[in-house]
Amino acid sequence: MMKKLGLVYGGKSAEHEVSLATAKAVIQAVDFKKYEIIPVYITYEGEWRRGAALEGPVSSIEELRMEKNGVAKPDSIHDFLNGGTSAPDVIFPLLHGTNGEDGTVQGFFEVMNIPYVGNGVLASSAGMDKVVMKQLFAQARLKQVPYVHFLRSGWKNDKEQLISQMEQELGWPMFVKPANLGSSVGISKVTNREELENAVQFALKFDRKIIVEQGVTAREIEVSVKGNDEPEVSVPGEIKPVAAFYDYEAKYKDGNTELVIPAVVSPQVAEALEGMAKQAFKVLDCAGLIRADFFVTADDEVLINEVNTMPGFTPTSMFPLLWQKSGVAYPQLIDELIELALERHAEKQQLQYTRN
After folding, report:
1. 305-317 pLDDT, tens per residue?
2. What is the pLDDT of residue 252?
3. Which of 211, 39, 185, 181 is nearest to 100 (CA)?
4. Predicted model pTM
5. What's the pLDDT tens digit per position in 198-241?
């Protein structure tokens, strides 16, 4: 029997376009003999629009926007998603960034008691906030680069003190990042005070919390993880960006960044990558999937950079590419993630919510 699969994409986020690219890629890969695909588009303004079930893959991103068509959100969001016999059996949230990857939508699906692919509220919100994530990693004694973090108000009131602290604790170069954003949006590499101040002002356009990390000379290695209580880890892949770092353009537009899969690493490094990725998955209480990003230094020290709780699914995205090279084809990967979502949801239904 075909499952009704709701694909939620777009979103009120700086990563709206990335989400559309992910949705297009998933629709092109999913098996229409197994699933009835129900598109749910969230506009830039945050309005939800549900379209008719798709009859087959779309040929362009523009077909997915539904700015002027689709069913506008009614007074009851419950009725919107649970449209009688057309209600989805499971939701695949293909949302990146704020208002989608940060636990907000996941909390909505939890309240609605709808199965959904991927991480829950805690893992999503903790994984989205790079500062909280790094603090949890530190608690678990996972090695990582030194960093300094502050709020907009702190930068306004104590800018000179913060700059001095960063120069002393981090040194040049540094990487300035919005704490709550992905796809390398708002990130800058800086080598002096003027660049640092400009980079912070730029990052503050996207978030009120900023994290500044020590620049490290190292290889950028990533692994993909899938599972629930017993996660599996893919082969590692290495990113060799042409630019100063693996930025938004390199990830989604240029197409000229070299991806080496599998990465050439020693058995000891491969073991460390797998172990640290599983540990990070469990520390954040993840479910379904993550991509874990690492630095590997010249002397084979492995440092965890961050995890992405809703990695991209575009044709050039590392998450599906790593699994492909690990023997899991794109359509099979989608099937497995859906089954993991249903498995986790079934487990939650066993919980008792009354005292007696």
Report:
1. 999 999 988 878 9
2. 47
3. 181
4. 0.90
5. 999 999 999 999 999 999 999 999 999 999 999 999 999 999 97
pLDDT at 313: 83
Buried b (16+ CB within 10 A) or exposed e, 102-138: bbbbbebbeeeebbbbbbbbebbbbbbbbbbbbebbe
Q: Indicate the residue among 197, 214, 231 that finishes a domain.
A: 214
Collapse the DSSP code of 44 into the 3-class scheme (helix H, G, I; strand E, B; otherwise coil) and give the result.
Answer: coil
When divided into structural domains, the chain yields a total of 3
- Is 199 in the same domain as 289? no
Residues 221 and 190 in one domain: no
Say how far apart CA 202 and CA 198 lie, in whole Å: 6
- Interatomic CA distance for residues 192 and 197, integer angstroms: 9
Q: Which domain does 310 fall in, by range?
A: 217-347
* Residue 97 belongs to some domain of the structure: yes
Pairing of strands 219-227, 209-214: unpaired
Q: How far apart are CA 232 and CA 234, in angstroms?
A: 7
Report the 10 Å Cβ neighbour count for 164.
12
* Polymer length in residues for the chain: 356
Task: Please indicate, yes or no, if residue 131 is contained in any of the structural domains.
Answer: no
Q: Do 40 and 100 share a structural domain?
A: yes
Say if residue 199 is in the same domain as residue 262: no
pLDDT in tens, 25-37: 999 999 999 999 9
